[in-house]
Design brief:
Blueprint (H helix, E strand, L loop, with lengths): L2 H4 L7 E3 L3 H11 L3 E6 L5 E6 H6 L6 H4 L1 E2 L10 H11 L3 E6 L2 E7 H9 L20 E2 L4 H11 L3 E5 L5 E6 H7 L1 E4 L7 E2 L10 E2 L1 E2 L4 E4 L16 E2 L4 H11 L3 E5 L5 E6 H5 L5
Parallel strand pairs: 1-2, 7-8, 15-16
Antiparallel strand pairs: 2-3, 3-4, 5-6, 8-9, 10-14, 11-12, 13-14, 16-17
Helix pairs in contact: 6-9
């Protein structure tokens, strides 16, 4: 199967010259975490910009200085297997599809999982060997600023949430947190800390997610107020293609994995499923 058969042609992109405000507005409006960057007035790809770029460079405002230049791209005639190899090797989630130097589409990890793996009747082996068993979880009363910090440190896009008995109570994603954040315009970038002494969670935590002069602020609310409580899960014996179908059906990219007793034992994300194409 070719990249052109599963890529999206309606591509959301940023333009240079432009500012982080332009990027942030596009990300929030379209609920995406990364965008190809083109030269204004053309479709020529010159970079790619992600949420991580915004967070790692809080003092920079210009897209040209925030983006990754000369991004990895792929031809629409390339095989989907080649795209999967690039995703795994470079630990990325999206590839601009370029023909003659111009942007014609974008292919993501989800495209391969939803449109290739989910319909492959031969991928019936259990997900057991693909499960990530060293995972990070948060307590349901953890404040949102601390939850976000844990997510950053663990480099996870979603975290399982456990209750006081250690049972799975929900799941929270980076999208959930950013959607709940309040955007405030500040003239200066400075560190804001809020003491929580005497509250349920005794931890001084940073309450501002920096995006230069445009900040995403999180209230000191516990994560269980925004987490998804009706959690979609899989078990170790779930077939790979069925796991992919669940991700497609519920439009999610990570699933908690339970054992036969219903205990949380790991997580599996859509990128893990790409490995099944090479087994």
């Amino acid at each position: 199967m070719k990249v052109k058969n599963i890529m999206s042609t309606n591509v959301i992109f940023a333009e240079v010259p432009g500012t982080r405000k332009d990027v942030l507005q596009l990300m929030l409006k379209h609920k995406v975490m990364g965008l190809p960057v083109v030269k204004k007035g053309t479709r020529r790809v010159i970079g790619i910009i992600t949420r991580t770029d915004l967070m790692n460079n809080p003092s920079e405002d210009q897209i040209a200085l925030l983006m990754t230049r000369n991004p990895i791209t792929i031809n629409p005639e390339a095989d989907v297997i080649d795209a999967a190899k690039i995703f795994l090797k470079n630990d990325i989630r999206r590839l601009p599809v370029v023909l003659n130097g111009e942007l014609v589409g974008i292919i993501t990890v989800a495209d391969i999982v939803h449109k290739v793996i989910a319909i492959n009747r031969q991928l019936t082996q259990p997900i057991r060997d693909l499960v990530e068993r060293k995972i990070t979880a948060v307590w349901e009363k953890t404040p949102l600023p601390a939850t976000y910090k844990i997510m950053q440190l663990s480099k996870m896009q979603a975290l399982p949430v456990i209750n006081s008995q250690g049972k799975l109570a929900g799941i929270v994603s980076i999208s959930d947190i950013i959607s709940f954040a309040e955007i405030i315009v500040k003239e200066h970038t400075s560190s804001i800390r809020a003491a929580t002494e005497g509250q349920d969670w005794n931890w001084d935590s940073v309450t501002v997610l920096y995006i230069s002069s445009k900040e995403l602020t999180l209230p000191e609310k516990p994560v269980n107020e925004i987490m998804v409580k009706k959690v979609i899960t899989v078990v170790e014996q779930t077939p790979i293609n069925l796991c992919a179908k669940k991700m497609k059906l519920y439009n999610i990219d990570q699933l908690p994995v339970l054992d036969a007793k219903g205990e949380l034992i790991g997580m599996i994300n859509d990128r893990d499923l790409l490995k099944a194409l090479f087994q």
